[in-house]
């Protein structure tokens, strides 16, 4: 066990030394400065590349991802209908869809689904 821990420590130390050496010995060129600037058809950009992002679009994206994953979870419920007891299948399906609908209702009340405020 001690040999294994010793080997792991040696590997970590060697990898850290290699990373530090690559940072220290890397050749900085004039062209590296251009990698940080945005590219706009060879011209200097007219505005900043870091424009403010509307939080509303981010919320719409998160809502889409949540509902997309939940819809993917609904698909296996359909074939399960023949494999399990109907009452158990109905209760779990009903609860799952009820939670989906409650989430949709909450988002609707919070006006998260409107494109404009």
TrEMBL record:
Cross-referenced Pfam families: Oxidored_q4
Recorded catalytic activity of this chain's protein: a ubiquinone + NADH + 5 H(+)(in) = a ubiquinol + NAD(+) + 4 H(+)(out)
Protein family according to the UniProt entry: Belongs to the complex I subunit 3 family.
Membrane topology: Multi-pass membrane protein
Molecular function GO labels: NADH dehydrogenase (ubiquinone) activity
Described function: Core subunit of the mitochondrial membrane respiratory chain NADH dehydrogenase (Complex I) which catalyzes electron transfer from NADH through the respiratory chain, using ubiquinone as an electron acceptor. Essential for the catalytic activity of complex I.
Protein name: NADH-ubiquinone oxidoreductase chain 3
EC number annotated for this UniProt entry: 7.1.1.2
Record field: transmembrane: 6-25, 55-78, 84-105
Statement: the UniProt record of this protein carries the keyword S-adenosyl-L-methionine: no
Broad class of enzyme this protein falls into: translocase
GO CC terms in record: mitochondrial membrane; NADH dehydrogenase complex
Subcellular location: Membrane; Mitochondrion membrane
UniProt KW keywords: Electron transport, Membrane, Mitochondrion, NAD, Respiratory chain, Translocase, Transmembrane, Transmembrane helix, Transport, Ubiquinone
């Amino acid at each position: 066990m001690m040999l294994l821990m010793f080997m792991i420590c040696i590997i970590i130390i060697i990898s850290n030394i290699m990373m530090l050496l690559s940072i220290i010995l890397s050749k900085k060129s004039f062209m590296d400065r251009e990698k940080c600037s945005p590219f706009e058809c060879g011209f200097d950009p007219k505005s900043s590349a870091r424009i403010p992002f509307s939080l509303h679009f981010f919320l719409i994206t998160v809502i889409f991802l949540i509902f997309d994953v939940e819809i993917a979870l609904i698909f296996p419920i359909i074939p399960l209908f023949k494999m399990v007891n109907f009452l158990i299948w109905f209760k779990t399906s009903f609860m799952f869809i009820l939670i989906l609908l409650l989430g949709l209702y909450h988002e609707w009340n919070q006006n998260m689904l409107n494109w404009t405020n």
